[in-house]
Amino acid sequence: MAEVHSSIDEANSRFLKQARRFNYTTPKSFLELINFYKDVLGKKRGNIEMNIQRFEQGLMILAQTQEKVEGLQQELKLKMVTVGQRRQETDELIAIVGKESAIAEVEQNAANIEEE
User: Fold this and answer.
1) What is the model's pLDDT at position 46?
2) Which of 97, 111, 78 is nearest to 86 (CA)?
């Protein structure tokens, strides 16, 4: 702040040389500068706090999603075991149906031969 205030004095000197007019810096100007700085600082802090809240919410949502995904992976493992068992049962049933179809076909052929 002090550096800014002293740079204003330098700017006033340049203004006097160029425009040949005086410009004064008063304590009120310095207080206005401080108030302006406080306003800008407050806005920046508000933006930072808002961003922190957004990031925290995002992290919370990511953690919840990760928990859900892990739960779904566990369910998938259990269902894959069930699917494997049912596939094996289906393969056995197909084998039995295939044998019975072959027997039925032989009997059908035998019946067709007897009818002729």
Assistant:
1) 97
2) 78
pTM for this predicted structure: 0.53
Taking Cα atoms as reference points, which of 57, 25, 47, 94 lies closest to residue 39?
47
Instruction: Give the C-alpha separation, 53 to 90, whole Å.
Output: 54
Phi-psi region at 2: left, alpha or beta (left = phi > 0; alpha = psi -120 to 50):
alpha
Please enumerate in sequence order all residues whose Cβ is within 8 A of that of 5, keeping only pairs 6 or more positions apart, or say none.
25, 30, 33
Q: Give tens-digit pLDDT for 78-111.
A: 999 999 999 999 999 999 999 999 888 888 888 7
**Alpha-carbon gap, residue 41 to 53, rounded angstroms:** 18
CA distance 86 to 80: 10
Low-confidence stretches of the chain (pLDDT < 50) are none
- Supply 101's token pair: 């179809």
Please tell me the total number of residues recorded for the chain in this structure: 116
Domain range list for the chain: 2-115
